[in-house]
Amino acid sequence: MYTQALNEKDPNAGKDKAEDPVLEARFQARVDEEMRIEPNDWMPAAYRRTLQRQIAQHAHSEVIGMQPEGNWLTRSPSLKRKAILLAKIQDEAGHGLYLYSAAETLGISREEMESQLLSGKARYSSIFNYPTLNWADMGAIGWLVDGAAIMNQIPLCRCSYGPYARAMVRVCKEESFHQRQGYDIMMQMAKGTPEQKAMAQDALNRTWWPSIMMFGPHDSDSSHSEQSMAWKIKRFSNDDLRQRFINATVPQAEYLGLTIPDPDLKFNEETGNWESGPIDWDEFKRVLAGNGPCNHQRLSTRQKAVAEGEWVRDAAAAHAAKVAARAANKEEAA
Ligand code: FAQ
Prior knowledge:
Blueprint: H1 21-32, H2 45-64, H3 66-70, H4 79-104, H5 110-118, H6 136-153, H7 162-190, H8 194-213, H9 225-230, H10 238-256, E1 266-268, E2 273-275, H11 281-288, H12 295-308, H13 310-333
Antiparallel strand pairs: 1-2
Bound molecules: Phenylacetyl coenzyme A (FAQ).
The site of Phenylacetyl coenzyme A has 29 residues, from α2, α6 and α9.
């Protein structure tokens, strides 16, 4: 998947001295010329750290993000819906693996990332700390959460770091299917019985603001945006992408006949933007600090799954060792 085998090692790689002005200028010039940075290239230590953090956070989000949907697998309303949901959740596991692999090319091991997640030290997207209370939540997650993810991740296909950018191409294609299946659920519910429509509205009411927060703090409070944009890790600011998402989503809610739970939402004729009311950043900070409605549950479920899967990993490793030993014996005998 990655081309580092073809990418000859830069003799300066590994000597990540951010203070080396010559190497740093050469690096920035490559970024400015839209050339991709590959694992064997020299890069500033802070660039490496930023990507390790962002990609790991992204991978953890995919992995933890399976839980709110897994909650509905056994209660899907039909076999077809169950098969679709199962496929979506499997895609998310795949995205997690892709992303952990991309982060590993930056010199951090998967074990280290996993232990950061399990210890509660690593972040994952705030959206996944909310409960999924009715079936329409599966629709709202696909429509809004995957919709926000696509808005954020399409520009990441042009991220300056090659392995992350390439991983994003497939991820975005799959997110696009996820978004459409979510909107399809919403359409069926919103055009269904009054009770179904009420469930769809309830799911929208609960998912709207957390999905708006997925884009991160306002630009003025975003600690990483300016540098990440200069490095072309990010192509658009948090507020820009949030605005694009709101503009795309408001007409979709109208088509469903649902109301966005923002009494201050208004269309600005001059800018062509749907302007949102104030975002509750105190809630965002609470969730980031580990005090959202499901933080504890989501982390402990993951910790339990890792602990309970230990014997499977041990058995697989023992089997692989036996196969390797047998092959080595055969080679010796021949
Ligand atoms: N939640 O300076 P910024 C998905 C943190 S995948 C938690 O603006 P940055 C698929 C940020 O890390 C969803 N933490 O940071 C799916 C930083 O932390 P620090 C995940 C957040 O990195 C669908 C601090 O706040 N997507 O949904 C959040 O430049 C359905 C300061 O913020 C990605 O990760 C947040 N919402 O921009 C799966 C995409 N926002 O350094 C299952 C890649 C910010 O203080 C079901 N990531 N923080 O520890 C990104 O594009 C960026 O990392 C941003 C944040 C835009 C999220």
